[in-house]
Amino acid sequence: MKFGVLFSGGKDSTLALHLAAEKGQVACLITVVSKNKESYMFHTPNVDITVLQAQALGLPLVSVVTEGCKEVELVDLEAAVLQAKVQFGVEGVVTGAVESVYQMSRIQRVCSKLGLECFNPLWRCNQRWLLDELLERNFRVVISGVFAYPLDVSWLGKQLDYDVIERLSVLSEKYGISITGEGGEIETTVLDAPMFKQKIDVINSETIWDRTSGVYVIKNAFLVLK
Hints:
Elements: E1 2-6, H1 11-21, E2 25-34, H2 50-57, E3 61-66, H3 73-88, E4 92-94, H4 101-113, E5 117-119, H5 127-136, E6 140-146, H6 162-175, E7 186-192, E8 198-210, E9 213-225
Parallel strand pairs: 1-2, 1-4, 2-3, 4-5
Antiparallel strand pairs: 6-7, 6-9, 8-9
C-alpha cells in the first residue's frame, strides 16, 4: 500500500513514518503549516524544518498553509491529503497520533471522505516504550517547545537521551505530566533518524521564553552527510 504520512517533523510523526515504511511504501509527506501557534490540530514549533527533513529522507513533501482556525483548518488538511492522493497515488494516510481523540477522529473523518485508509501505528502505545524506541533506533530528537509546569527554559534545545527520559518520568510521577507531551507539555524536532540519508545540523537558534512556556527556534540549519 502507498502511504502519505502526516508529518510535523516531531518525534511521533517521524517514528510513525518509520513504522509505516516497514509495512508498505511511503509515497510522500503531508505537512500543514499553521499560522496559529495555538492550533488544536497541528504542531507548530520549527514546522518549516520539514522542508529539510523531506530532503534528508528523499521524499516529496505536500505542504499547505492554514490560518489555523478551529475546525476550519480541517478544510486545508483535506486539500493537502487530496493533493497527495491525486499527485502520488496514496491509498492510506499515516498519523503519529498517540492519545488525542480530537486529532485522530478528525483525520479519520477526512480520510473516510476521500476514500483512504487511516493508520495510527502509535495509538495508545506505552509512552515510555515510545521514547525508548526513539533512542534504540538512534533518532536524534531535540525539545523544541515546553508548555507546562514544572518544565522551564532549561529544557529547550535539550537532546532526548536516557537521562532526559528518566527526568521526565520523575516529573510525570510527581506532577502528572505526560512524558511524551500528549497533554501539550512538550514539542520536539527530529534532526536525524534511520531513514534520513543526511542529518540536520543547526548552526543558529534562538530560545524564546514567556513566563511559563517557550520555544527553541531553529533559525538556520543545513544538511550534512552521515
